[in-house]
Design a protein that fits this description.
The chain contains 18 helices and 19 strands. A hairpin with a 5-residue loop joins strand 13 and strand 14. Helices cover 43% and strands 17% of the residues. It is globular. The protein binds 2-acetamido-2-deoxy-6-O-phosphono-alpha-D-glucopyranose and magnesium ion. The site of 2-acetamido-2-deoxy-6-O-phosphono-alpha-D-glucopyranose has 14 residues, from loops.
Length: 573
């Protein structure tokens, strides 16, 4: 090696050493802060928590240390991705006493799955082991600690949310990160802010006002195309805000709607308790209207959940019968609308609907056989649906529980835009392209969003001149039932085929198969919950009675073969 070259290598090595030295100094300074600050947010000894399907969730009293540590983790994730990260303090549809935290990745999606284990690791480190756990993440991910960190923080309306979000802010600060506290926002609003920030405003302005402006402008543009048979009566919608953040935000948005949508807001948090006998989860699970809502027969109502990332619709007919239009019905409405527009625009874009095993069999049948769209089934949990939807030009994803959105690939958005802006496009194609463009803009593509979904659904109904009854009549749901079974360790149940089949414990799937054979149009599956210490049982069949019988029989099989605890499940009737 010649001398000059050798010297230049030495220079590089020395620089490296200096860099390493300064990184170490940085790290030591941070660690002193972390050490000091974390003692103000101590972990109760031996408490074990798990980053579940959608982050941590527990009684609010057990979460202070987790919040602080998620502030630390968000700062690390920000340094690693060189982008802004979000932290949302909420426990969604859980009772008011609970709380939780979700981390948001740069494009507004949920935290990368490989980082979920770091979250669990940090949350569970005993007080004296926290620095070691932190260093471990830094080393494994080769994080440059001198990189700056930016974190957006939001919270729901729970009384515990203020101090818990302060703990997150403390965590970010302990690692020298910058944070922006958005205060009270819905979960999807915070996802939106993160994406706006990291796309330098290309997705929109990273403010709550910017969010209302973008969505409502697109909504008004869409509504300008309403069908001639659509009367002013159709502008009325009753919204159940679950006594949570969604109610506050709908109220805030109202002036942007220019009276094109007339909302009667119920369960707005002024008296009722959060998620108590109201909200999307209550309505879906109980299959009945929320309390606190006054709604005439035949009129549309919808319910948000506690952090406004889910929505379900419903009405009561003149015989007093309740009709629920869940996530499957919403996915069907939206994908039909989009497919019609693609045909009108002569755009060759591949559209698919992503569902989970909970999707009603009728919906899957209708989508595949009548609408002829591709249907994909994934495991429960938004991140799984979201990833599957990203594989298509247009991916419509919805869980039956009402969480969902639509994703457009970059190429799809470009094609739509080109068509809309091309002066040579004929009138029919242009109209369709403009409608598609506004549809893209009314949708929050980062995550399911009750407010955005509501605006899109209202626009589609108006454009198609469709009543909620006509929408409901697209297909008839098969009767279905969900039950829970307590077992000593739910992890003994392992599933495959997007949770539709159990591979363990031995004999369980065979038992389910033979029970299902007894009933017409029947289907059943079991899976361990990702949010509660129970095994969930789902059954559907031709009639409600046979559905209930099947659900009970499968629960018994779980109880007997998977280590049931407490009393044996009782028949429903
Ligand atoms: C979480 C998930 C939801 C899923 C539910 C299943 C997110 C944002 N939320 O709420 O998608 O349907 O868990 O709960 O991913 P389970 O595992 O208890 O049935
Ligand atoms: Mg929610």
């Amino acid at each position: 090696m010649n001398v000059a070259l050798h010297n230049s290598y030495r220079d590089e090595e020395e620089k490296e050493e200096v860099n390493l030295e300064s990184r170490k100094v940085h790290m030591m300074a941070h660690f002193q802060d972390v050490s000091k600050q974390s003692s103000l947010h101590p972990k109760p000894a031996e408490l074990v928590s798990q980053y579940g399907t959608a982050g941590f969730r527990a009684n609010a009293k057990l979460l202070d240390h987790i919040m602080f540590r998620m502030g630390l983790l968000a700062a690390l994730r920000s340094k690693k991705t060189k982008a802004t990260i979000g932290v949302m303090v909420t426990a969604s549809h859980n009772p008011e006493e609970d709380n939780g935290v979700k981390l948001i990745d740069p494009m507004g999606e949920m935290l990368l799955q490989t980082w979920e284990s770091y979250a669990t690791q940090l949350a569970n480190a005993e007080q004296e082991d926290l620095l070691t756990a932190l260093k471990d993440v830094i080393e494994k991910e080769a994080i440059n600690m001198s990189q700056e960190a930016n974190v957006f923080v939001g919270k729901d309306t729970r009384s515990s949310s203020s101090s818990l979000s302060q703990a997150v802010l403390d965590g970010v600060a302990a690692l020298g990160g910058h944070s922006k506290d958005y205060g009270l926002v819905t979960t999807p609003q915070l996802h939106y802010m993160v994406r706006c920030q990291n796309t330098q405003g290309k997705y929109g302005e990273a403010t709550v006002e910017g969010y209302y402006k973008k969505l409502c402008q697109a909504f008004i543009q869409l509504i300008n195309n309403k069908a001639s048979n659509c009367t002013d009566d159709q502008k009325h919608l009753s919204v159940d805000g679950a006594n949570g953040i969604g109610a506050l935000k709908v109220h805030e948005m109202e002036s942007h709607l220019k009276k094109e949508l007339l909302i009667s807001l119920f369960n707005d948090g002024s008296k009722g308790k959060l998620n108590h006998q109201c909200g999307a989860d209550f309505v879906k699970v109980q299959q009945k209207p929320p309390t606190g809502i006054e709604i005439n027969p035949g009129e549309r109502g919808c319910s948000f959940d506690g952090d406004a990332d889910r929505i379900v619709y419903y009405y009561t007919d003149s015989d007093g019968r309740f009709h629920l239009l869940d996530g499957d019905k919403i996915a069907t409405l939206i994908s039909t609308f989009l497919k019609e527009l693609l045909t009108q625009a002569s755009l060759d874009l591949k559209i698919a609907v992503v569902q989970t095993a909970y999707a009603n069999g009728s919906s899957t049948h209708y989508l595949e056989n009548t609408m002829k769209v591709t249907v994909v089934c994934t495991k429960t949990g938004v991140k799984h649906l979201h990833h599957a939807a990203q594989e298509f030009d247009i991916g419509v994803y919805f869980e039956a529980n009402g969480h969902g959105t639509v994703l457009f690939s970059e190429a799809a958005e470009e094609k739509i835009q080109q068509l809309a802006e091309n002066p040579g496009t004929d009138d029919e194609r242009k109209r369709a392209a403009l409608l598609l463009q506004n549809t893209v803009n009314v949708i929050n593509q980062t995550v399911g969003d009750a407010i955005s979904d509501m605006l899109l659904i209202e626009a589609i109904l108006a454009i198609k001149g469709m009543t909620i009854q006509q929408w409901d009549a697209m297909y008839t749901d098969l009767p279905n039932r969900q039950l829970k079974v307590k077992v000593s360790d739910r992890r003994v149940i392992d599933t495959t085929d997007a949770e539709r089949r159990a591979v363990s414990p031995a004999g369980l799937q065979e038992a389910i198969d033979s029970l299902v054979k007894k009933y017409k149009q029947a289907r059943s599956f079991v899976r361990p919950s990702g949010t509660e210490d129970v095994v969930r049982v789902y059954a559907e069949a031709e009639a409600q009675e046979s559905t209930d019988a099947l659900a009970h029989e499968v629960s018994l099989a779980v109880y007997r073969l998977a280590g049931g605890v407490g009393d044996e499940p009782k028949p429903l009737h």
